[in-house]
Amino acid sequence: MIKSMTGYGTASFDSGTTKYTVEIKSLNSKFLELSLRIPKNFSDKEFQLRTECNKQIERGKVNLSINVEKTDATVKAAGINTQLLKQYFDQLKAVSIDLNEPSGNLLQLALGLPDVVRFDEDSVSEEEWKIVEKTFQQALKNFQQFRADEGIVLEQDAKYRIGLILNNLKAIEVEEPKRVPVIRERLNQFLADAVGREIVDQNRLEQELIYYIDKLDITEEKTRLITHCNYFLETLQSADANGKKLGFISQEIGREINTIGSKANDAGIQKLVVGMKEELEKIKEQLLNVL
């Protein structure tokens, strides 16, 4: 069963004094592009988080965020680097005088500059990390379930469109035998108009017709197209992540459809081939989002 690369999962835990929230989002990408947004005091756990994401998520443009919100009075007060604040303020005041601009909000601007306000962050205890890790695993489980649910939709759509391609192939098989009499009549009429019917060597004409019609034979292409479509459907059911493999198979399907179109020499068959190409393009678009 295939999975979508688009996914979303979230989980939270409230200990009474602290609320932990983990959120995972992903979009399609050829490789794993992982972006982490975690509290500074969890930075030593980043490698562990990345390793787990590499193992379970595999591919996609992924955003992982961990939010820790204190819900009681245990929040540590912020500290102000007064020396740095004064330096920022003096510099801003000097610039405002040079530019002849009002200096009413300089203190507010200075407070917002880097490293002026510092929060006293505690190191993460083993007990706290276990809570966050458990919450992360739950969010990851919800994320994977979302991907699986989306994969079911993609799988059903791909099956439906492969079915349409095979239906068009059956219609081509009905139209195909009608080509020979039309080609024969067209060549006979052309020769009759060009040189006269009585001059034409019928034996030679039959030989040329056999050679020409053999060049337009699409039996091999039809057989290979059916084989590729069946292989595509089998791969959809595989337990492995097969987005790239399905992409390669769809390319082979496209080659056979194109060859049938180039050999068609019939407006009705060409119309059916165009329909097949249209369905295949829709399949390829969907495969861009398959893991």
Topology:
Blueprint: E1 7-14, E2 18-27, E3 32-37, H1 46-56, E4 60-70, E5 78-80, H2 82-99, H3 106-111, E6 117-119, H4 126-175, H5 179-194, H6 202-215, H7 219-236, H8 243-264, H9 267-287
Parallel strand pairs: 3-4
Antiparallel strand pairs: 1-2, 2-4, 5-6
Helix pairs in contact: 4-7, 4-9, 7-8, 8-9
Keywords:
two-stranded antiparallel ribbon, alpha+beta, 291 residues, four-stranded mixed beta sheet
Descriptive overview:
With 291 residues, the chain is of the alpha+beta class. Helices cover 60% and strands 14% of the residues. It is built from nine helices and six strands; from the N terminus they run βββαββααβαααααα. The strands form two sheets. The protein has a four-stranded mixed β-sheet. β3, α1 and β4 form a beta-alpha-beta unit. The longest helix is centred in the middle third of the chain and has 50 residues. The model has no long low-confidence stretch (mean pLDDT 85).
Summarize the structure.
The chain has 291 residues and is an alpha+beta fold. Helix content is 60%, strand content 14%. Strands 1-2-4-3 form a four-stranded mixed sheet.
Judged by helices, strands and strand pairing, the structural class is alpha+beta
Helix-strand sequence? EEEHEEHHEHHHHHH
Total beta strands: 6
How far apart the termini lie comes to 10 Å
Main sheet: strands, sense, barrel: 4 strands, mixed
Strand content: 5-15%
User: Helix share of residues?
Assistant: 55-70%
Runs with pLDDT <50, length 5+? none
